[in-house]
Amino acid sequence: MLKLNFNEEGLIPVIAQDYRTGEVRMLAWANEEAVRKTLETGYAHYYSRSRKELWKKGESSGELQRVLEIRVDCDEDALIYIVEQEKNRACHTGERNCFFRNIQGERIEKPLPFEALPRLQEIIQRRLEEKPEGSYTVKLASEGLDKVIQKFGEEAVETLIALKNREKGEILYETADMLYMLSLALTLNDIDVKEVMEELIKRMK
Amino acid sequence: MLKLNFNEEGLIPVIAQDYRTGEVRMLAWANEEAVRKTLETGYAHYYSRSRKELWKKGESSGELQRVLEIRVDCDEDALIYIVEQEKNRACHTGERNCFFRNIQGERIEKPLPFEALPRLQEIIQRRLEEKPEGSYTVKLASEGLDKVIQKFGEEAVETLIALKNREKGEILYETADMLYMLSLALTLNDIDVKEVMEELIKRMK
């Protein structure tokens, strides 16, 4: 195990990054005991500088973080916990992560590119649960998996034609259409987009 | 602009996160001047605790970070710089990011799910540049865009059949095949995967 460089207070900063979406859920601090407890239990532990005590994330809120891996930086003075976030929510304000504003104080509304597919699938899942009036996703799903697969096939063909035409705008538009239909079809098959990504990663050398 | 809570040394921790891949490139510190310079110039500035000076990332190495957004956490005591990383490399060790080892000291070889598509495209680009002997990507590309598009179409049909069969393993396998062919076709069209994701995000409400 790597020797960590704790600061003069015996602490090291920890970034909690989501395994599925890549979003930074929070930045907190750990002492040696918190790191040890995290390794022992598989759940994120931190050290609260205000309460001056060891702290298991989510112990009262249920917003537990299962830690899949701990990463260490080049100087051994910062950590990343790669986490699966219970309740898909990590911030005490009720937000999904603590970094929900930019420096101008504006709320961040849109995901970043690497978050696009997992966040799209979350939207699809929410639509299918809540069935809001006028939702295209709900309408399509109500017509059944065959209809969704047919639409996916149509969008794949349109993507193919766009690629053949070498028209950038058309390619982006049709590929996005196709990925939406694919995401819906995967969701109806109870498959998480991350599982497709895991399959891709397995093949990487 | 939000008021930031600098610590007793006048510093705030900054996570540099890549806009395209989502990887955490590094964790560093900023003082008020570094944040101001970052906002003014659009390039990441930090404060070096060892050299006790303001520091423009990449000034000597060329590994500049263009900052697209600064995010602030709920307690206003941590920042994220969302960056585009010059040279696709950020660590003084020559690694792409500073978190290249796990706590056991082992090198991290595989990307995480949210990194899969951008990292796959990097591999494809590298193969097309370096043309290593025996590479399937190089062989396919040498047969031309029509051949790649044809393969994409075949894999889309196989994905469609797998979805229809509701066979999870088959769906994951064929979808991964299709996404590989799509990534190759996009690369041959000089389209970055992130541009497709931006198109998807534009549509999100």
From TrEMBL, chains A, B:
Predominant subcellular localization, coarse grouping: cytoplasm
Pathway recorded for this protein: Amino-acid biosynthesis; L-histidine biosynthesis; L-histidine from 5-phospho-alpha-D-ribose 1-diphosphate: step 2/9; Amino-acid biosynthesis; L-histidine biosynthesis; L-histidine from 5-phospho-alpha-D-ribose 1-diphosphate: step 3/9
Catalysed reaction equations from the record: 1-(5-phospho-beta-D-ribosyl)-ATP + H2O = 1-(5-phospho-beta-D-ribosyl)-5'-AMP + diphosphate + H(+); 1-(5-phospho-beta-D-ribosyl)-5'-AMP + H2O = 1-(5-phospho-beta-D-ribosyl)-5-[(5-phospho-beta-D-ribosylamino)methylideneamino]imidazole-4-carboxamide
Domain Phosphoribosyl-AMP cyclohydrolase: 26-100
Places the protein is found: Cytoplasm
InterPro entries on file: His_synth_HisIE, HisE, PRA-CH, PRib-ATP_PPHydrolase-like, PRib_AMP_CycHydrolase_dom, PRib_AMP_CycHydrolase_sf
Highest taxon above the source species: Bacteria
EC number: 3.5.4.19, 3.6.1.31
One example GO MF annotation: phosphoribosyl-AMP cyclohydrolase activity
Residue numbers spanned by region Phosphoribosyl-AMP cyclohydrolase: 1-116
Protein family according to the UniProt entry: In the N-terminal section; belongs to the PRA-CH family. In the C-terminal section; belongs to the PRA-PH family.
Protein name: Histidine biosynthesis bifunctional protein HisIE
